[in-house]
């Protein structure tokens, strides 16, 4: 099973005063999904935004709104993010003791569930929940900030997960330090959804969005080339 490579720009690297316009611009330039990084200042050492921001963004995103929850606890907020229009809600395996319940609750809310793994967490941590998820997100930086360096030692974990997933229809998403030089490594290992924050948004602006398109095409091309 080979899904197409999907590029999911992270608005964490966009202009915070222009999120609606940034979402429209990046989709017009070829983004497949829009990745929304929710941080609570507790699970990760940074704060971003919550369900109200996701609801405000929803009319500006015509495709998939991919909500990455870097929060603990998760369960009290699932319904709010579902009502805000999330298509995918990804919770961290490290965020609490009842991952199975969390993933069931996301599905019950009518949203596609994802599970994310920090760099220090082995692939085996999700072995028992692979039938419950549509996506496994492999963090290739420690979550909390954009613009960090890709952690190379996470690449073998991607290949291990692809083997564990087998013939299930489950995406492997990569989040952190994805650019045209790192994308081929994770695509060759079996990833199909590539989050890219700074590698997309540093190349343009709402007024000059063509650079976003060029960056998306370059990352996609590099990833596809590694699979061939
Ligand atoms: C990190 C976030 C990422 C981040 C990626 O905690 O989950 O989505 O925005 O940013 P870059 O692509 O700049 O590493
Ligand atoms: Zn993210």
What does this structure look like?
The two termini are 14 Å apart. The protein has an 8-stranded parallel sheet. Helix content is 32%, strand content 19%. The radius of gyration is 16 Å and the shape is globular. The protein contains 8 helices and 8 strands, in the order βαβαβαβαββαβαβαα. The chain has one domain: Alpha-Beta Barrel (TIM Barrel). It has helices at residues 19-28, 51-57, 78-83, 99-108, 155-165, 183-189, 198-201, 210-227; strands at residues 6-9, 33-39, 64-70, 88-92, 112-117, 135-139, 171-175, 193-196. The mean pLDDT is 98. With 228 residues, it is an alpha/beta fold. The structure holds D-xylitol-5-phosphate and zinc ion. Residues 10, 35, 37, 68, 175, 195 line the site of zinc ion (ZN).
Tell me the number of strands: 8
The CATH architecture assignment turns out to be Alpha-Beta Barrel
The oligomeric state is: single chain
Share of helix among residues? Answer: 25-40%
Total of DSSP H or I helical runs spanning 4+ residues: 8
Q: Write the H/E string, N to C.
A: EHEHEHEHEEHEHEHH
Shape annotation:
globular
Distance between the termini: 14 Å
Task: Write a compact overview of the structure shown.
With 228 residues, the chain is an alpha/beta fold. 32% of the residues lie in helices and 19% in strands.
Which key features would you list for this structure?
eight-stranded parallel sheet; globular; binds D-xylitol-5-phosphate; binds zinc ion; 19% strand; alpha/beta; 228 residues; TIM Barrel
């Amino acid at each position: 099973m080979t899904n197409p490579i999907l590029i999911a720009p992270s608005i964490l690297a966009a202009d915070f005063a222009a999120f609606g316009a940034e979402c429209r611009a990046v989709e017009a330039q070829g983004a497949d999904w829009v990745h929304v990084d929710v941080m609570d200042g507790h699970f990760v050492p940074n704060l971003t935004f919550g369900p109200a921001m996701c609801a405000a963004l929803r009319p500006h995103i015509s495709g998939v709104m991919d909500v990455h929850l870097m929060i603990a606890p998760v369960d009290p907020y699932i319904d709010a993010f579902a009502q805000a229009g999330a298509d995918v809600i990804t919770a961290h395996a490290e965020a609490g003791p009842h991952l199975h319940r969390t993933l069931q609750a996301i599905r019950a809310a009518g949203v596609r569930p994802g599970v994310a793994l920090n760099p220090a967490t082995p692939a085996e941590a999700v072995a028992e929940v692979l039938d419950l998820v549509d996506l496994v997100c492999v963090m290739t930086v420690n979550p909390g900030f954009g613009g960090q360096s890709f952690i190379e030692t996470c690449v073998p974990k991607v290949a291990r997960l692809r083997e564990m997933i087998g013939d299930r229809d489950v995406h492997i998403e990569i989040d952190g330090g994805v650019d045209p030089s790192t994308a081929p490594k994770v695509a060759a290992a079996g990833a199909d959804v590539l989050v890219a924050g700074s590698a997309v948004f540093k190349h343009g602006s709402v007024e000059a969005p063509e650079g976003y398109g060029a960056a998306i095409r370059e990352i996609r091309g590099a990833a596809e080339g590694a699979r061939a």
